[in-house]
Amino acid sequence: MESSLRLKVQIGYLILLIPLCFSLILSYISLNSLWYRIKSLETIDLFIQNLLEIRRYEKNFFLYKNNKDLENTKKLATRTLEILSKKKEIFYKIDKEKSKEIKNKLNNYLLFLNKIEEIKPEIVRKLGHELIILGKDLRNKQLSIIDTSFSKLIVYLFILGLISIGIIIGVGFFLAKRVVSPLEDLEKCMKEILTSKYFSVNCPSHRDKEVRSVMKTLDLMLKEIKARKAQLIQSEKLASLGTLLFGVAHELNNPLSNASSSCQILMEDIDNIDKNEIKNFIKQIDHEIWRARDIILALLEFSRYKQFDLSEWNLYNLIQEVLFILKSKIKQKNIKVDIRVDKKLKIYADKQTFQQALINLISNSIDAIENNGQILIKACYDPNRHGIFIAIEDNGCGIPLSILDKIFDPFFTTKGVKGIGLGLYLVNEIVSRHGGTIEVESEQGKGTIFYLFFPYKRHSKSQINGEEECKCL
């Protein structure tokens, strides 16, 4: 069944939203109730304040017999009774019976004030005192209700908070398993692609359409990179071929000149030459023609594009073929090339790209040497890592330490307009594609050594030769 990371995230947020909404609703209801009760408490406080004012005017009246105090007492009593009538629902909500009792006593108190001459002062004062006590009881009860409501709100919010934490933890586990886990698998897959240097996605399939979409896009991107790199290698190869053409043309000119000279001699003196000498001239011409053919075939083999194909090859022969292509450049600078490689040593590699890497490295060594220099090529089998180590050493100008970590970057060159900066970058890519490694040591003014390692992908008895010489590296 197809699933979606977006849907899972939306479900997670929805689950988190439910307790949040419930908390907001509960908080709104509770706070609104508290606000109503606090506002009710203000009404009760006003009511009690009026009762206290009534008591004050009442006391003054009985002490000083001032009718103005009596009138003020009546007015306040009437106003207090109006407050009780208008805000009846507030008082009844607190304590209905006690509110009715206050109303009755307040009516009686107002009646006594109107008949003050007939009523004993003690009765009026006692009734006023009872009203104060009842009002304070009502206020205390409202305070108790507010305190209880507030305590309940705290408890509710605490419980809801615990529930919310539990839901968040549950949603976290859900997202970690259903969302983060596929992303971690995708990250692991990308890291494997990065470390393996293969241009393909071999990750487990997922039900999530977003992950599958990323996998598909990544696969297309890797295929495009693979195609572009193949074109890049071929372009660099043709560029290298162009730099070699002048020297190769010189090499090709020698056998053709020899063949041409032999033909001219035959045409001029064919009547005076015996059959055996004619045969020798023909053999010489044939030899020079085959020599020219070998040079042309070597160039064609190097320039032709082939699919990446790992096979066992004789390492010594591969090196000799590369040196044959670079022969004129080596002769031009009078460079001595020393090969210390067992002639039976095998390497598991793609011939075309491997030789391209050797040509780039040896060409760099030739360019780094002024004249009468030396290039040393060593190789051996390492039984511990099960692969071939190759070292290419020269006594050229060396590489400055400040740029040593940049030499494998694309388009980085120290040759100015003569170079495009792809040689060592492609060497690194070729070695990595074989699953190998490349390292460099260099000291400015003394020379450079490139260390290459090519692993075997399968066991073979033929690769064991040269095992002891591995200590030379």
UniProtKB/TrEMBL annotation:
Q: What is the lineage of its organism?
A: Bacteria, Pseudomonadati, Thermodesulfobacteriota, Thermodesulfobacteria, Thermodesulfobacteriales
UniProt cross-references to InterPro entries, sorted A to Z: HATPase_C_sf, HATPase_dom, His_kinase_dom, HisK_dim/P_dom, HisK_dim/P_sf, Sig_transdc_His_kin-like_C
Gene3D superfamilies associated with the record:
1.10.287.130, 6.10.340.10, Histidine kinase-like ATPase, C-terminal domain
Name of the protein in its database record: histidine kinase
Q: Which organism is it from?
A: Thermodesulfatator autotrophicus
Q: What is its EC number?
A: 2.7.13.3
What's one Pfam family the UniProt record gives for this protein?
A: HisKA
Keywords annotated in UniProt: ATP-binding, Kinase, Membrane, Nucleotide-binding, Phosphoprotein, Transferase, Transmembrane, Transmembrane helix, Two-component regulatory system
Catalyzed reactions per annotation: ATP + protein L-histidine = ADP + protein N-phospho-L-histidine
Every Histidine kinase domain range? 247-458
Top EC class per UniProt? Answer: transferase
